[in-house]
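Sample intake sheet
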Amino acid sequence: MAEIPPAKILIVDDEAAQMKALCDTLGDHHYETTGFSSAGAALAELERMEFDLLLTDLMMPEMNGIELLQTALKRHPDLVGIIMTGEGTIATAVEAMKSGALDYILKPFKLSAILPVLDRALAVRRLRRENAALERAVRERTAQLEAANKELEAFSYSVSHDLRAPVRHIDGFGRMLGESEKSLSDKGRHYLELIAGAAKRMGGLIDDLLEFSRNSRAEMRRADVNLEKLVAETIERLKPETEGRNIVWERGALPVAQADPALLGQVFSNLLLNAIKYSRPRNPARIEIGSVAGAPGETVIFVRDNGVGFDMRYAERLFGVFQRLHSEDEFEGTGIGLANVRRIISRHGGRTWAEGKVGEGAVFYFSLPKTGEGK
């Protein structure tokens, strides 16, 4: 096993004999010491070499120990400083600690008193360096993830945008061919219908991808949002989707929330459309919107339906892009609506989850951070 290198200590004391004696003594205890009787010379050495600890006298003519430590810490923030003083007053100790010193030792001192202080200081030094390395790694990883997400969002937007025109052309030329060509066989017309249906589905998928990309990039504009009013407006806007259906709406009390009104409107629109769609086999369909107690500091909203439900083993898949638990023959859709819900709520600092049982309906929850009493 490789031998651990000795810790490097910079010792500063204007009493040269005392400084040298301390250097020699600590050198005998597996420390690498460098000593100076001048604060200026010590600072110059700090520019040339890296040290683990700074052990400095408090009262010195050129620059006192507190000033020396403060200057050194500006250049080397993870350096650990210890003040030596013969005064031994509480005020001196407090001032030393305020300057950034980890500890202080009183003169005249015994080796048995110094060594535990040095051990503790080195442990703090290691911890500071490990924390700094961890923070750097987190910053680098975060920057990499942000860059990757931006590239992915830009790619998604570009591809979706560029695909719209050819899909429109396929749909348009297919319709024109069906209208102008009277000699097409029944099989030919069936093929044209399949082309038109596929183009329509592709167009819907592209539109949903663009919306997903916009929700990731759009600037947040927070305001007080009356959730009861927003739900009522959303239900009114979705009336064409519920025409001819027997739907019983149950609306509980909802709070005012701090959120982006447009983005939160999309959340309710997606969740209510989801409930409308998957409760289609029910007569009557029951859709409930309300709030429940959540963790401290959060508001939890839910949308419950008595529809076809889902297997809880696949609950997390519901919020993934393009993730569907039912075939398109059963229920239409692109599998992006709930992914949009999660993305928007995540941007608000909230969370999303779902509960359900096959054949017995589902409940979708989202939380928003509280911004104060009554909100």
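Comment: Residues 14 and 267 are 70 Å apart (CA to CA). The radius of gyration is 35 Å.
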